[in-house]
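Inputs:
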Amino acid sequence: MGYNWNWGIFLQPTATGDDTYLGWMFYGFKMTIALSLSAWLIALALGAVVGVLRTVPNKWLSGLATAYVEIFRNIPLLVQLFLWYFVMPELLPEALGNAFKQTNPIMQQFVASMVCLALFTSARVAEQVRSGINSLPPGQKNAGLAMGFTLPQTYRYVMLPMAVRLIVPPLTSEFLNIFKNSAVCSTIGLLELAAQGRQLVDYTAQPYESFIAVTIAYLLINVVVMSGMRWVEEHVRVPGYLGGK
Amino acid sequence: MHEFDWSSIPNALPFLWEGMKISLNITVSAVIFGIVWGTLLALMRLSPIKPLSWFAAGYVNLFRAIPLVMVLLWFFLIVPHLLESLFGFPRGSDMRLSSAIAGFALFEAAYYSEIIRAGIQSVPKGQMGAASALGMTYGQAMRLVVLPQAFRNMVPLLLTQGIILFQDTSLVYVSALADFFGAAYKVGDRDGRLVELLLFAGAVYFVICFTASRIVRHYQNKLKTA
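Outputs:
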């Protein structure tokens, strides 16, 4: 079909001359990893809090947590990203909004992307935490309360240690998702992996090599995360449960 | 603080509705093709013929490992050129809508096939045995006994996946195709009212998806008690 394959393209210096195309790819790869990992840590912390709140007996708190989850689950990720990047700085108090707009553009893109991915994912993590807590036999909570633990203590010492171990497998898929979802951030100009792939197509006119390389990079992330999480799963499995030891 | 001005939305409604039709078109087509292709993949995956099952497993794992944005970029930037050179389509013909539908359908099929595979496996083994005892072939037993029961249980999950797909159609933004979100962005950009248009788009998506997921949940509860 008359296409000139040229895998050597990655070692050539870029049009701007300061790096090789492989260097660009690597920059994007690092950006994807940094963005996904930082967003993941926030998502875990927020998701744990919101997930716990969804199961507490207080109607106001659980209602608030439900609203949080519904909002972040029913608006497309791309729309949320644009809301954080274009709309949020306008709605903040003027001084804060201007301060944000005056920071380095890469920083703006990174912060907006990180907040967006973190909150989007935290709603999903919260759902897993909630279903983990709800899957515990009700006797555990009652036993904790009967022993004289307060409700927060029951959560802290009885329910959460079990629930956290039970939800590791579903969290694995959310962890994988956050890497995949980070590709959406290329739309606001953040130069992560997918964006660098597009840029390579424009600069090198070698679309197949660029896209194959980017796709392989995502597969690589997938494999590494999966084997890492499998290791974690094996170490936290609860004996006596399905899939346990 | 930002001064809101919503006045550009009423005039833009017809244009936004055109965009919404494109979003819905992509969603419905991709759901239908995705379920058909996903069912075939699930049957391949469960089939005793090893190469078929390997192919299906490879396909599903590949598509589930790469971001949807990458799949769409492949379909917008590369597949049209490939088709042009392979089948001699006229250069530069606008294939963005069909590319989008094809990309979404092939991508979603991987997710549908996992739902359908779980659905088929949830049908008790005795059903297959009983069908064979009645003299049905494997194909007949699948088609007349196993799949109807499997699909009945899967409907809520398939619909939920459809809602996710509807949200994901906004990603055709990468091809500048004017779906609902693309249309809203264009209007906002043109009138300098991006804040209002983006908030409006978010609200519309929320109302549609929230209502749809409520209906699915209602149906799911009815199914449970039936």
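Remarks. The two ends of chain A are 54 Å apart (CA to CA). The longest helix of chain A spans residues 21-55.
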